[in-house]
Amino acid sequence: MFEQSWRYAYTGIIPAKHLDSLVIRRGKRWWTSIIRSGDPVQVLEVNGTVCGYATLGPARRRGRYQGEIYELYITPTYQGLGFGELMFESCRNELDQRMLNGLVVWALADNDSAADFYWRRGGRPIAECFDKFGETQLKKVAFGWR
Known about the structure:
By secondary structure, this protein is an alpha+beta fold. The protein is built from 5 helices and 6 strands; from the N terminus they run αααβββαβαββ. β2 (49-58) and β3 form a beta hairpin.
């Protein structure tokens, strides 16, 4: 599920060898570590099939946005059916329960579907930075909600 989602989202954006490396690093050990850490992980299951996940918690950068959705991915087969919106709202609800005011989500600027998804949910660009993948620099945009 994870690999399908990432390859669908980033093929043609992140250089292939770097995308392969990111996917490989997300093996069983990484997932076990995340689950054992106690950090919030939300999993979407439909008819016994895991088809999405999200990770969230305190914002990684200090500022007026205290909560952050670190990752939110839906398997391509299940995209466009409203599951992404359900996951997003579930994350917002959990961050609200943790009394983290304001929400930020980072997305690669070239990932039009992610940018459009967050824009349609009411997020607006509040910051940008660059991540380097080998010789390639990719712009990231932070979407914020108050």
